[in-house]
Specification:
Phosphoserine phosphatase, seven-stranded mixed beta sheet, L-phosphoserine phosphatase activity, amino-acid biosynthesis, Alpha-Beta Plaits, single chain, elongated, alpha/beta, DUF4072, 12 helices, 2 domains, HAD_sf, about 280 residues
Length: about 280
């Protein structure tokens, strides 16, 4: 199988491209949209390529030549800090004056340092008593898509790829993001609302790490897709089981523990960098 080395970044200087071409023993350098492809690259040079790209602040990936986004049947994504730029629970907690402590727990959970279900219970408890209207304010005022998100989803839709959002956050946000981007499926946790205020608890099946993986497996089974036709994108430790269900996984601006286990990592470009790896057409 022929392999291409894909190089992406905010700026890709010509000297770096030429150096990487030499390091990877490639055939040709081709421009492909915002990305560059070094065709016929040798995967055995990945250590040297990684070292150069880390210094140059460039994203890199050895990918099968000719593989397209349409070759996948399912694109599964995390939401907070992956599809969108915020952690919704941290922003909700800001309205209770508790953002710093809640965000610290969130970050530790994403690094895999503490039990995720227990961390969610602790963080949600900090929201008790807040007006339900706070959720609308977070959505309207703070929720923003990460760069390239809408372009990626549009390309997936055009390629006939089923899209699945699986989040350890809350249905208030995932349902709206699903509708706004015309995603096929979205699953998340349900916040309990009592008398127009947050009760500080959730209800229903917990969408934790195992829950995310189960949703990916179930949707893939309903589509009769093998693992090699599943693409998953995440950033935190609770995404790892979901990403393990996929034949190809991408760590997006992710924690070190996630990058260590993912197939590819995007650290410097937006989500449209996925299209640099696997063009939509």
């Amino acid at each position: 199988m022929t392999t291409d080395l894909v190089i992406q970044g905010e700026d890709v200087p010509t000297p770096d491209l030429k150096r990487l071409h030499a390091i990877a023993h490639g055939d040709f350098i081709q421009r492909a949209g915002e990305a560059f492809r070094i065709t016929g690259a040798d995967p055995a040079t990945r250590t040297a390529v990684a070292e150069h790209c880390a210094e140059a602040k460039l994203d890199w990936a050895f990918v099968p030549a000719g593989r397209k986004l349409a070759d996948f049947g399912l694109l599964a994504m995390d939401m907070d800090s992956t599809l969108i730029s915020i952690e919704c629970i941290d922003e909700i907690a800001d309205f209770a004056g508790r953002k710093a402590e809640v965000a610290a727990v969130t970050a530790a959970a994403m690094r895999g340092e503490i039990d995720w279900p227990e961390s969610l219970r602790q963080r949600v408890a900090q929201l008790a008593g807040l007006e339900e209207s706070v959720l609308r304010r977070v959505y309207d005022e703070r929720l923003r898509f990460n760069p390239g998100a809408e372009k990626l989803i549009a390309a997936a839709r055009a390629a006939g790829v089923t899209t699945l959002l699986v989040s350890g956050g809350f249905t208030y946000f995932t349902d709206r993001v699903r509708d706004r981007l015309s995603l096929d499926h979205a699953y998340s946790n349900v916040l309990v609302i009592e008398g127009g205020k947050l009760a500080g608890t959730t209800t229903g099946p917990l969408v934790d790490a195992r829950g995310k993986a189960a949703h990916v497996a179930r949707v893939a089974a309903s589509l009769t897709l093998p693992r090699d036709r599943i693409l998953a994108i995440g950033d935190g430790a609770n995404d790892l089981p979901m990403m393990a269900e996929a034949g190809t996984s991408i760590a997006y601006h992710a924690k070190a523990v996630v990058k260590a286990q993912a197939t590819y990592a995007l650290d410097f470009v937006g989500l449209d960098g996925v299209l640099g790896l696997f063009p939509g057409t």
